[in-house]
Amino acid sequence: MEHPSPTNQGSSPPSRPRTLFEKIWQQHEVKAATADHPAVLYIDLHLIHEVTSPQAFDELRRRGLKVRRPDRCLATMDHSTPSLPADAAGAFPYVDDLARKQVEKLVENCRAFGIELYDLNSEHQGIVHVIGPEMGATQPGKTIVCGDSHTSTHGAFGALAFGIGTSEVGHVMATQCLLQHRPKTTAVEFTGRLKPGVGAKDMILALIAEIGVGGGTGQVFEYRGEAVEALSMEERMTLCNMSIEAGARAGLVAPDQKTFDYLKGRPWSPQGQAWEKAVARWRELPTDEGAAFDRVVHIDASRIEPMITFGTHPGMAMPIDDTVPAEIHGEATDKALNYMQFKAGETLIGKKVDVVFIGSCTNSRISDLREAASIFRDRNVAPGVRALIVPGSKKVKAMAEAEGLDQIFRAAGAEWREPSCSMCIAMNGDQVGAGQLAVSTSNRNFEGRQGKGSRTLLAGPATAAAAAVTGVVTDARRLGGT
Amino acid sequence: MDVFRQVTSHTAVLPQANIDTDQIIPARFLKITDKQGLGENAFYDWRYDEQGKPNPAFVLNQNPFDQAGVLVAGDNFGCGSSREHAPWALLGKGFRAVISTRIADIFSNNALKNGLLPIVVDSAFHQKLTAQPGATVNIDLEQQTVTLAEDGARVGFTIDPFARYCMLHGIDHLDFLLQQEEAIKAYEEAAA
Ligand code: SF4
């Protein structure tokens, strides 16, 4: 199948230095903003899943409209889908009828509107933000949207990627465009290098703890600096993924050789001569020397410790061996601590854990599973702990199995599941029980996010794995292995 | 979309900061494929107990707050996911406007497309509102003002002029985009 290359127009030298964001924005303005209306922005890639699309398809039907560019859509199913395989007859164990119907509706809608769908029987199925990059659909310079706030993940490739609501899903389907106000830009400069045993998840939790969950409202972040350049593509995805948890519209990392190497030869990537041309275009994208951001935030990467959350939003995060604060950003933490059953001044190290979840669009890629496996190897899941490991896509699952990671997890007593959002959002039946304490590699620790009454600690894969094998909150560096 | 010019109603106050979309409408209610019934499930986990009975301590279960048309909420309201089910649920519950000191971007965008007015006010006025739950306010979209009936205290608010125009006239954003077909075509041809 032929896929259009991204629409990077106008390669004439800019008259003034511009940021990566500005370049992508300007290249996609079908109409600039006027006093009467916001900018009309062209969208190169529309990612679709079962939860936020049905009402949009219905709106198209109601108006007698088509999907304008089915070739710019990529659809999959992930939120309501089971993490257990089909039975012998090929039937999938949906949590309830509503979930099954929602998935069937997507199949029906994609068929009716001519959209390519990676369904549960496809070898490409997976969490939408994991498979976009994996397929090579996510490319530098593109505008990418999805009815899902973690669309910010794709910014790791130097694409302007952001979440939209269902009305806007309909707008993109019908017109391939969105009405958008131009956000402001923030340079997030991570200076210095990370210490061993500290990863991208710790960087983003440290940032959100620093600026707060509303600190990015109205902004697009560009992550810069030595520590960001040193990250692998998978780690950059983890970093960009949680931009939305600071309230930012999107997160960006400038494309570089790592980006190009990752994309080369993937199914949707340009091939042959088109590849060379694309790379030449992509090399023009990084922020010009001297370009101005609306704001700059500095974080010393060398001082970041493995992070863990203690409260009920991702900004309530701290170094794993710190004590729980009574206040963060001038906001008292008492209500959150009451929900979490923690006390200010105590440490979380040694807290008994009931559930460990390794998965989600934040940390379910092969490098995350390798990191977790290095801790599970030759160890057992502690008695009384349920450990659920959910690869982000069929491809990640196959890779992990080819490397024998699934054997390490299974031998340790962890559950090895099928690709889905699973316990991240607890829509498919995988959930944390009321009152249970979970260490999760996902992105939201909101009240009830992982099931009514669930208590979530967010952390990176090593910390989660360490909790699984010790049965308590543990600094993974004490165990070695990463 | 319904025309929105003025709303006069009493308020309900949820003063805590960072009320996320998982609180407004928990994820397990997102399996629907239409927009029906969300109002009954708005704030479900705060509103109902284990047995599904209304929790009498929760403000939206108390008279007259259960009939409020204006929600006054703490800073950074609507953070979290992009689910448009959140404004659908609030509209279903009978709210026409949300007032806070900061409202998350995607929530705000979604609300405006459904005739739910997101209003950001300064913290002084916000404090005044949170101090008097159930106070009657008048919201005038044409004038872009919120007025407290009791003492006539008034603040202005800003709103994207395009969204305001659409709300005042009941115009859908998609209609506008559909009229841009020629420009979109020209863009695609130039980009090809
Ligand atoms: S894994 Fe979680 S955050 Fe990511 S798309 Fe699925 S539900 Fe959303």
TrEMBL record, chain B:
Superkingdom of the source species: Bacteria
EC nos: 4.2.1.33
GO CC annotation: 3-isopropylmalate dehydratase complex
GO terms for biological process, alphabetical: L-leucine biosynthetic process
Keywords of this entry: Amino-acid biosynthesis, Branched-chain amino acid biosynthesis, Leucine biosynthesis, Lyase
GO molecular function, one term: 3-isopropylmalate dehydratase activity
Domain Aconitase A/isopropylmalate dehydratase small subunit swivel per the UniProt entry, residue ranges: 1-122
Record bears the keyword Lyase: yes
Main EC class the enzyme belongs to: lyase
Pathway in which the depicted protein is active: Amino-acid biosynthesis; L-leucine biosynthesis; L-leucine from 3-methyl-2-oxobutanoate: step 2/4
Catalyzed reactions: (2R,3S)-3-isopropylmalate = (2S)-2-isopropylmalate
InterPro entries: 3-IsopropMal_deHydase_ssu, Aconitase/3IPM_dehydase_swvl, AconitaseA/IPMdHydase_ssu_swvl, IPMI_Swivel, LeuD
Entries under Pfam families matching the protein: Aconitase_C
UniProt cross-references to HAMAP family, sorted A to Z: LeuD_type1
Subunit structure: Heterodimer of LeuC and LeuD.
Free-text function comment from the UniProt entry: Catalyzes the isomerization between 2-isopropylmalate and 3-isopropylmalate, via the formation of 2-isopropylmaleate.
PANTHER family: 3-ISOPROPYLMALATE DEHYDRATASE SMALL SUBUNIT, 3-ISOPROPYLMALATE DEHYDRATASE SMALL SUBUNIT 2-RELATED-RELATED
Entry similarity comment: Belongs to the LeuD family. LeuD type 1 subfamily.
The name this protein goes by in its record: 3-isopropylmalate dehydratase small subunit
Species name: Acanthopleuribacter pedis
